[in-house]
Write a structure and sequence with these properties.
This protein is α+β, with helices and mostly antiparallel strands. The protein has three helices and eight strands; from the N terminus they run αααββββββββ.
């Protein structure tokens, strides 16, 4: 029975994923995520295993929505060379996450960080540490975060190569951040 439910959830996720490809803004991706997480809680709130699967599907849809915006000429993400990275605070003890990314050319890159959903403090990270492992450079530290911070952008000089980001989030579960590494500074872009 649970296998059938998972297949139905996967089918719904696929349909919703294609719908997200037509959203024109990052805010619409956030809106879709919020709606999908609400549906998961409503439909699977009494079944912790199914709730985890459903929530993970909602995050997959969100990541695909954000990454699809890189190909939309009307989007602020259009042409970014590096897809968005999402970091979510899970339940249990905070853990160190590691994500790799590749830079094709030497230059200045902006680490554009969206802290949770705009206007919803329950999704905001209040403390995090983000560091480039290979250089030891701290990009964001706990002093960069609080519940009122929606967005932060920092320039970083990088040489061509592959890097690992170490991320530690110390905040309430289900809070998240989205990091978009780009040759564009999104602080000058308004939606």
């Amino acid at each position: 029975m649970k296998r059938k439910i998972l297949l139905l959830v996967a089918a719904a996720v696929s349909i919703l994923c294609w719908q997200t490809l037509f959203f024109a803004s990052l805010q619409s991706c956030f809106d879709q995520l919020k709606m999908n997480l609400y549906i998961c809680k409503r439909d699977f709130g009494n079944d912790p295993v199914m709730l985890v699967y459903c929530n993970e599907g909602a995050w997959v849809i969100f990541n695909r929505c954000v990454n699809a915006l890189r190909f939309d000429q009307n989007s602020q993400l259009y042409g970014t060379k590096i897809p968005a990275l999402t970091f979510k605070r899970s339940y249990g003890q905070p853990v160190l996450s590691a994500e790799t990314f590749t830079i094709d050319e030497d230059g200045v890159y902006y680490f554009n960080l969206y802290n949770g959903e705009r206007g919803d403090q329950s999704t905001k990270i209040s403390s995090a540490f983000i560091q480039i492992f290979e250089t030891g450079q701290t990009i964001f530290s706990p002093s960069d975060f609080n519940k009122n911070v929606d967005f932060v952008s920092k320039p970083v000089c990088l040489s061509a190569g592959t890097y690992t980001l170490n991320v530690s989030i110390k905040s309430q579960p289900d809070s998240y951040l989205i990091l978009i590494i780009s040759d564009k500074d999104f602080s000058t872009i308004t939606e």
